Prior knowledge:
There is one protein chain. Strand 5 and strand 6 form a beta hairpin. Helix content is 25%, strand content 28%. It has helices at 8-13, 27-33, 137-145, 152-161, 166-178; strands at 17-19, 22-24, 56-59, 65-77, 83-86, 95-99, 104-111, 114-116, 121-123, 127-130. The chain is an alpha+beta fold.
Amino acid sequence: MYTGKFTTASRKKANVTVKGNTVYVSVDNFKKYANCKSFFSYKYDANKVVDNKTTVTATNKNNNNSTVKDTSYKAKVTAKIGLNIRSGASTKYKVLGAYAYNNTVTITKESNGWGKTNRGWICLDYVSRINTSKKSNTIIATEVISGKWGNGNTRKQKLTKAGYNYNDIQAIVNKKLLGY
């Protein structure tokens, strides 16, 4: 398949790497420098998730190693203007669509702050996890008092992201500590 596709000079221009029978080149460079009129290419997506219970090491478009972890939970979209769905776990990937505000999604994989849904990858900064096996507000208030949820805005963000109502928890904390 490779034979004759690139001259030695065009290999360098196209940033081609040949290892055995495999040629590594971007589709754009292939179109620009290859000696052919038409071609068929296979896209290798390093962030493609395998549906088994193993941990997959993926390389994103920044060439940084990231780990894709199996998970399973529901989350609600908190971005008022909606949330882009991408083909990979980074803003460098193509937008495939969007979820509307308050939409509930199921996250099946996680990688570097991104979550995989049935439609693609979304940034987890703009969703709030829906905790289906939530602890009671009283137990969470006790944990807040013991320092497990941090302070100030950090606490508020953590509680909200975990699916708790910050004001309800804080009212219980105040009642326990201050008696009102």
